[in-house]
Design a protein that fits this description.
Layout: H1 2-14, E1 18-27, E2 37-41, E3 46-48, H2 53-69, E4 73-78, E5 89-93, E6 101-109, E7 114-118, H3 122-133, E8 137-141, E9 155-157, E10 171-175, H4 182-191, E11 196-199, H5 203-215, H6 220-223, E12 226-227, H7 239-256, E13 275-276, E14 283-284, E15 291-295, E16 298-302, H8 305-313, H9 315-322
Parallel strand pairs: 4-5, 7-8, 7-10, 8-9, 10-11, 11-12
Antiparallel strand pairs: 1-2, 1-6, 2-3, 4-6, 13-14, 15-16
């Protein structure tokens, strides 16, 4: 147990994303029992124990997706997919020779959201105040930002000179200058390396601003990355309402699509394409497959020798099922 705990502490200290997989139920025969845990990092490496090869392959794949979208899920792995009253359970068919049923809860552990706010007006102040409740890492950039009433956890820079975002966590830049230093803030936000950039402004004003900046040398492709207007359309009017709409959009983006980290942060250490075992339909890495077999010019990979033997006894049976 200490092994996965130590790995979790190590990854947490580094600010790198990972997921915790916990076995919550098991129906024999299974090698993992309720309470078994494992850590899966963003490169797909597993530390701990939550079952054998087929189980591990599925859990790693699901864990990487949980890290990407920032939400947990309960997985049921069983030879028989049964209707469940609990629609939050994701059913995964397991046709490996070992049999048994496992239910595993996967919970992503992500670094704090880095929020860069450009502006010293009421909307910027309201946004920083609300975001602090969500425990984001917040910095406000703008001349005069020192005069804003902000929570003590919010850092303040009295200029638009934002250093590149560090770490592998999700990051977002919100331009809330509203006419006071728009051009400088746009340039700073785009060079900050934030994974998502949005601006509190109208589409009409943004079109004019972007045209002027592009005329003076700023890349049109870079400007196209700025989402305008910032926030969900809740008919916001006051600074507080604008802040609510912007935060709602940040949460929605993070939960449904995943807000990118600064710079390259691939979820796999190597770009090896995963394949499906045609017998049990598990997703596996060809490099770690238990065996492989060629049929009619195509090579198939298998999670276990049992699947390999079944395939070689009657390849067309499984290829027809797959089709």
């Amino acid at each position: 147990m200490s092994h996965w705990l130590e790995k979790a502490a190590e990854l947490r200290a580094k600010g790198t994303p990972f997921a915790i997989a916990t076995v919550v139920d098991a129906v024999a025969p299974t090698s993992a029992k309720p309470g078994a845990k494992a850590i899966i990092n963003a490169q797909g490496n597993l530390y701990g124990w939550i079952g054998g090869g087929c189980t591990q392959a599925v859990i790693i794949e699901e864990a990487l997706d949980c890290i990407q979208v920032g939400a947990g899920r309960l997985i049921r792995l069983s030879p028989d997919v049964e209707p469940s009253a609990n629609h939050s359970v994701k059913q995964v068919a397991m046709r490996c020779e070992s049999g048994g049923t496992l239910e595993v809860y996967i919970e992503p552990v992500l670094p704090k959201m880095t929020l860069l706010i450009f502006g010293a007006g009421p909307a910027a102040e309201a946004l920083a105040g609300l975001a602090a409740i969500l425990d984001y890492e917040i910095t406000v950039f703008a001349p005069g930002a020192e005069a804003l009433k902000l929570p003590s956890s919010v850092r303040v820079r009295g200029n638009f000179e934002a250093p590149p975002v560090e770490g592998t966590g999700p990051s977002i830049a919100v331009i809330a200058t509203q006419g006071n230093g728009d051009e400088q803030a746009i340039k700073a936000a785009l060079t900050s390396g934030a994974g998502y950039v949005t601006m509190v402004t109208s589409r009409t004003k943004a079109t004019s601003l972007f045209a002027g900046l592009e005329k003076h040398g700023l890349s049109g492709d870079a400007l196209a990355k700025i989402k305008v207007p910032a926030g969900l359309d809740i008919k916001a009017v006051t600074p507080g309402e604008i802040a609510v709409s912007v935060l709602a959009e940040i949460i929605q983006e993070a939960r449904t699509k995943g807000i990118g980290a600064a710079g390259p942060a691939p979820l796999a250490s190597e770009a090896t394409e995963k394949v499906k075992d045609p017998v049990c339909e598990m997703i596996i890495d060809p490099r770690t497959a238990a065996g492989s077999s060629e049929f009619e010019g195509t090579t198939y990979h298998f999670c276990s020798l049992g699947c390999l033997d079944s395939f070689e006894a009657d390849p067309r049976k499984y290829l027809l099922e797959e089709a």
